[in-house]
Specification:
Chain lengths: 137, 766
Amino acid sequence: MFSVILSTASRYLLPLLLIFSFFLLLRGHNEPGGGFVGGLVAAAAYALYFIANGVDEAEKLLKSEPIRLIAVGLVLAIVSTVPSLFAGNNFMTGQWMDTNFPLIGKIGTPLLFDVGVYFLVLGIALKIIFSLAEEDR
Amino acid sequence: MLNLIIIGFIASAAAPFIFKPLKKYFGWIAASFPLYLFIRFLSMYREVADGNIIKESVQWLPSLGINFSFLLDGLSLTFVLIITLIGMVVFLYAGAYMKDYDHTDRFYLYIGIFMTSMIGLVLSDNMITMFMFWELTSISSYLLIGFNHHKEKSRKLALQALLVTGGGGLALMAGLILLSQISGSLEISSLYNLNETIINAPSYKAIVILILIGAFTKSAQFPFHFWLPNAMEAPTPVSAYLHSATMVKAGIYLIARMNHALGGTELWQDTIVIAGTVTMLIAAILSFNQMDLKKLLAYSTLSVLGTLTMLLGIGSKLAIKAFFIYLVAHSLYKGTLFLVAGTLDHETGTRDVSRLSGLKKLMPITTITAALASFSMMGIIPLVGFIGKETVYSSILEIDYWGQLLIAIAVIANALVVMITILVGFKPFWGQNTPTPKNPHEAPVKMWFGPAVLAILGLLIGLFPDVVVGKLLDQSSFSILSEELGIKIKLWHGFNLVLVLSLVTLLLGIIFYMLRSKFLHITQNLRLIRILKPSEWYEFLLNGMMYVAKFQTKMFQNGYLRNYIIFILVTAISLASFALFKVRKDLSIAADFSITFYEAAIAAIIIISTFVVITSESRLKSIVAIGVVGFIMGIIFIIHSAPDLALTTFAIETLTVILFVLVLYKLPKFLKFSKTGSKIRDVIIASGVGLFMTLLVLYITSIDLASDLKKYYTETSVPGGKGRNVVNVILVDFRAFDTLGEITVLAIAALGVYALLKLKLDDKEE
């Protein structure tokens, strides 16, 4: 069941939704949002694209195995714990840079951690969706 | 010492990467590493010999009392020197022996990890650190026994060794924890002078039993002995190193190390003596039928391990002296003989002792090496084995009551060991030459050099015992007994009863050897009743466990989602309502029952959607209705000002509906609905759960839940976590460690889903 309208719309919606998911991720520290919900929204964006254009197209667009995203997420989260050890603080104490960045705000290891959560959640959701979708073939 | 251990692990990990380009010389390169460690530790010899104890401690988890604390005294130095010296020989030997194996690089990785862990084990002063190294040796032993992993037998026997030693390891851990509760510290050195407190503690019996189970499984004492002969499935260098010279002595090391803390009671001493004596005798008897060179050596190793254990159990000064000499002697000659057996296997293509003879002219160096080691093993003057046996006998003769029985057992066991020695060390080399599967010639230098060094060392120690190991003996005995030994070590003790006993042993051994060929056809037909064999107990336990596992999996994991849900819900509400109604007297419902318009509307929508879910005849309709319930839940969160939760709920609900649709797509139409009986069951369970949850919520909201946490998080969120969204700050900063755990679980779950679906796909493709 192929719909031209949905397919065309999804091409424009996908980047918008991805930007939105990233926006959710970044604002999460001060306003509602965060890595978890950001990752879910990003996964929903890909899911929309996959419903409109089929799983092959969606996988091609992702350019990477969802499993890799999971690994990347986990590694980022773990890497974010390392600076606390070098600073001599307790494990996973947040380390912050002093400068304020526009849009993002302060940058620190909790943000990196949240980015890890984002990729991990995105990877897991996509892995499950794509695995189920591939069952047809 | 910690840095040496870290270097050890790094070097092991690097081994596979440098193996390929340097394949030809890798034996020499690999051997240089244990040599380096040997020299480093030898440089500490003088300090230890003067009676100093070298200590080192690096904090690891100080709040739990777990530290990388190491201690080098006479006992640990003796072990470390043995480990590194034989390690060097074995690493070099393996360079030639393992040439034709696949994945020799992995072999060096595993054996490197083993050597480092073994050094860590004997150096550790902290019980948990020691336990960690203890388990690492079991794991590396597992990997090495199962090195030929394409053979099912290898895998099975490797698992057997792992399960037996691993099970003992668990007992050991429990014992160590109990012990640390008495002393209040995890450092073994803190147990000095606490002997009286410990043996009077109520948990003393449990401690002794648990720790001895750990030691006996590791050192293959009866009734846990069966894994050791089976471990001969490993490549020969592994057998020589782990299963003869080092790892199997870890249990004995533990007993020696714990002796000053736990020793002195009948329970401790007698259990050890009995276990050791039984092992010594049974192993020697069981060797009678063996034909395989390695099996013969394995049983003689068992017998010696039994002797060493027995000596520790006797615990007199003379016995400790005998223990030390025998330990050193055995490591030297048994390592050598194992490697000789490997050489024979390598050169002739068989390990069957009946097919080997007359190799003397073809392999002269190996013949001499084997003879030297064999003389030591048989206890012939002037080798170190002679001093060992003499001291063992004289320490047994000291015992008043049971001494005569023990000495008889010891003589018979040792005579059988003499028989094994003749079979392994002499028979293959002397007499008529017989054809073998391969054409034998002298082994390459990598394979004869090391064993020859060990054999000559055995001779040197025999000739000049006091010079070479006298100081180590003094300090080791001090570590075990906490008192000065005051006995000098020397080769010749004069003509006395002990010398007579030594001669009797030799003669008896030769007689056994000559009788063996005549009686073999009778004894080989003898079968022990199955129930008497501990290996059968192991099989029985293992099969029983598999049976229970299968049974319970079939019962709980039956593949019906509805049954899982029933199990989970019924269990949860039965347990929780039991707890709830037990404390009900203190509870009252004081909720606010006023209802706003929004709440009424939400409740109505939920009820209607739920009704649609259970009555609908189309799956799609049900799923959409479930989705509605989910989104309405999100709205409830919004009303109660939890925007983060609402956002996440919306996203989750969206994805859930998509997932459902994907699955649904493949399901057949509703063909039949539940029967009336199961409908009634479901109604009862569902209403029960609903009722219970309602009550629970009402009770909970009636309790004053004021806590400081809420205030704390709200106040510290911006200064501490640099964020105004308290929920997010909790997730990624305050309680980030929990989140880290959760996302790890998520990642594993995703892999699980992937594996399940992939498995199904592969099935289909076939």
